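Review this fold:
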Amino acid sequence: MSNQVQADYVSAQEFESNSEAPVERGDLTDIRPIPRISMQCFCETDIIAQTLEMTGRDRRMARTHVKVNMGGIPAAVEFYQTAPTPNLIMVESHKTNPALMEELGRLAEVCDPDTKVVVIGHHNDILIYRELISNGVSDYLVAPIAMADIMNTVSDIFVNPENGPIGRVVAFVGAKGGCGSSTICHNVAWAISTRYKVDTLIADMDLAFGTANINLDQDPPQGIAEAVFSSERVDDILLDRLLAKCAEHLNLLAAPSTLERTYDFQQEAFYPIIETAQRSSPHVVLDIPHMWTSWTRQTLAAADDVVITAEPELASLRNTKNMIDALAELRPNDSPPKLIINKAGISKRPEISIADFCRPLELEAAAVIPFDPELFGSAANNGQMIAETDSRSAIAGHFDFLAQVLTGKAELKVEKKGARGLMSLLRRGK
């Protein structure tokens, strides 16, 4: 047995001998609630697993999805061969360098670039810490650890204002009324939340006629109206109270869908809502009504990605071209909008071919969704998403693909394995 292996073995045995000790809580007084992130842990010792499990049950972690597994880094590598990676992975290891870096390199090959990694080690060695941090690991904690240590680390990564918002904003808008932008928006958000198991928030910004509550079979007493008309009071607590939970990882900020008042807003009326949502949810999906006002224009300009839904006919082509040109001026340093052509192939309707539609726009369609009134009608009448109505349909596959494109996630089981080395992945994911 080499000196290093023997040292690791002795360290593990000494630590396990104290594993019956009660879980340390530490000072939890000033820790802020942790956002809606997914966090998966792979432990080697029972006491670390118990500490992580108790941390996950704390009220400050109520919005966080925490799963604790045994097996350390090797188990994580095997698990993520076929599973999507979460926002945060915590791994426990008794190893030191270079063995630790080699194991993390294998983990990097099956991780997405935006996943954060925290290592819980058993060697209080500044050289290990410096090497891990320099290669993109978010933090290195030395066991024994307390609940407060874990929460402070997660808070520093996801709550610290200096690190910016954690949520990516995608805005969906139609090139004309009735083209199906809202339905596509809701189905893509569903696909993101179910396929990748990350928290996703839908904000229905069509206060008068929004359909997200119907499509998702929700009837919340409050929603986005209470937030936008009290924007100065919007914070994490208020937003939590206004959200309707549609699924394990999907929340809805519903529109009132009533005509009891008019809805005229200032240019930045929705900014506090979006900024607050970004601080607590990894994916924020905006369902923007088909109109061109100061607030819709500014909201589209501020989004990370814009998705335009159009039908293959002349009015949609004209409007899509105008919107792309306007957004190019508003967002000169951003990628162009994603284009979805919906309701393709309506019987007896003269249509512009996909190639002719895309040519003047100078971009390719991200998806062409065929006209299927039976499938969409059945889903709408039952308050279901397409994947719930017929998970094997080609249209459900389109929504899965769009979820992959908009999240930047690697294709499961195909592109992830061996995609990149530790240095590039962890530096990009830091």
